[in-house]
Every structure is written in C-alpha cells, then in structure tokens.
C-alpha cells in the first residue's frame, strides 16, 4: 500500500529532507524540529500507520529500525555515550505522522520522560 503521509513523500523524493541513510527497507533523515543535538527519524518503506497496526509477521520491520538506529549511533561515534530511541503511538503517545517511525535522540544527557502533560 502506498504511504500517503509526509514520510511517504520524503521516501519518494516529493519533498526534501536531510537523508542520512537509506536501504531497500527503510530511510533515515533529520527531524525538522530537533529535540536533541542529534534527532534522526527512521522510517520503514512498508506502509504501517501505527504500532497498533503492526502484525506479528511484520515484527522485523521494527527490528530493522532499531538495528539501523544502533548501527548509525556506532558509525557516528555517540553509541558509547548513549542515546534514546522512541516510537510514539496515537494521541496519548504524541504521534503526529501516521506512518510508524523511530526517533533517535542523542548528543546530550537527556532528561527523564513519561510525565503526563
Ligand atoms: P511523531 O510526533 O509522529 O512521533 O513524529 C513526527 C516527527 O516528524 C516530529 O518530530 C516532527 O518534528 C517531524 N516532522 C514533521 N514534519 C516534518 C518534515 O517536513 N520534515 C522532517 N524532516 N521532519 C518532520
């Protein structure tokens, strides 16, 4: 199924992005509104709106996002200092783009999280 979201448009080069990695399974690009010195989004090329729509046979889609983010962290030299990965789901999770994606945040000591707003 075609990803009609903003991220699908980035994958198809219909809108620009600062792409840092791409393979046949996923794309990674810098977030337009970074929440840390490093803030990269990892997006699968398989169209899945939310984590609630992920089927068991698609679990490797998320595994690939995590592996790509960890590999990027090592390649960029901040893996040992550490980083955070986040996936938001629906309203309470703060999801705004309905194609699953993983946030990689790094480059500073990040505060704790999980406080209701
Ligand atoms: P969500 O809130 O769905 O977990 O994350 C969506 C992310 O997409 C946000 O962090 C937001 O800053 C980012 N974003 C929204 N529009 C654009 C855009 O046009 N380009 C890029 N690179 N990131 C975007």
Relative helix content: 10-25%
The computed structural class is alpha+beta
Q: What percentage of the residues does DSSP assign to strands (E)? A: 15-25%
Give the N-to-C terminal Cα separation.
Answer: 34 Å
Brief summary of the model shown:
The chain has helices at 6-11, 59-76, 90-93, and strands spanning 19-22, 26-30, 38-44, 83-86, 102-106.
Structural commentary:
The chain has one domain: HIT family, subunit A. The protein is of the alpha+beta class and 117 residues long. The longest helix has 18 residues, at 59-76. It has helices at residues 6-11, 59-76, 90-93, and strands at residues 19-22, 26-30, 38-44, 83-86, 102-106. It is globular and about 35 Å long. A five-stranded antiparallel β-sheet has the order 1-2-3-5-4, covered by helices on one side. The protein binds guanosine-5'-monophosphate (5GP). Guanosine-5'-monophosphate binds at residues 6, 17, 29-33, 41, 88, 94-97.
SSE arrangement:
Layout: H1 6-11, E1 19-22, E2 26-30, E3 38-44, H2 59-76, E4 83-86, H3 90-93, E5 102-106
Antiparallel strand pairs: 1-2, 2-3, 3-5, 4-5
This protein binds guanosine-5'-monophosphate (5GP).
């Amino acid at each position: 199924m075609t990803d009609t979201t903003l991220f699908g448009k980035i994958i198809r080069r219909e809108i620009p992005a600062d792409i840092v990695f791409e393979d046949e399974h996923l794309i990674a690009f810098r977030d337009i509104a970074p929440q840390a010195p490093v803030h990269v989004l990892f997006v699968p090329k398989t169209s899945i709106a939310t984590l609630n729509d992920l089927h068991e046979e698609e679990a490797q889609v998320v595994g690939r996002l995590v592996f790509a983010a960890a590999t990027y962290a090592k390649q960029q030299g901040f893996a040992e200092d550490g980083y955070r990965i986040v996936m938001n789901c629906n309203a309470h999770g703060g999801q705004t783009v309905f194609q699953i994606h993983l946030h990689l945040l790094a480059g500073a000591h990040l505060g704790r999280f999980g406080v209701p707003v």
